[in-house]
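Forum > Structural Biology > Help requests

Title: Can anyone predict the 3D structure of Complex III assembly factor LYRM7?

Hi all, first post here. I have the sequence for Complex III assembly factor LYRM7 but no way to get a structure on my laptop. I'd be grateful if someone could post the structure tokens.
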Amino acid sequence: MGQAAKVLQLFKTLHRTRQQVFKNDTRALEAARIKINEEFKSNKSETSPKKIEELIKIGSDVELLLRTSVVQGIHTDHNTLNSSM
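Reply #1:
Sure, ran it for you. Structure tokens for Complex III assembly factor LYRM7 below:
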């Protein structure tokens, strides 16, 4: 798979993961969408294959972290939270 295809696949995967992890949390969904788009846009003109591979690795690590480590809390009472994963 070419680098451009890998980058596009990562972009889509990050957005899908964002939608799953932050489901029903519009503020977090929007913040994550903006951050993902900003990061990809800021590196849009990168041409070094080595640097692009490094960025792909970082993005993949972030996606894994989101998927496995983020816990959303839901207020159920004044001082009570339920976690959802």
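The chain has a mean pLDDT of 90. The radius of gyration is 15 Å.
Shout if anything looks off.
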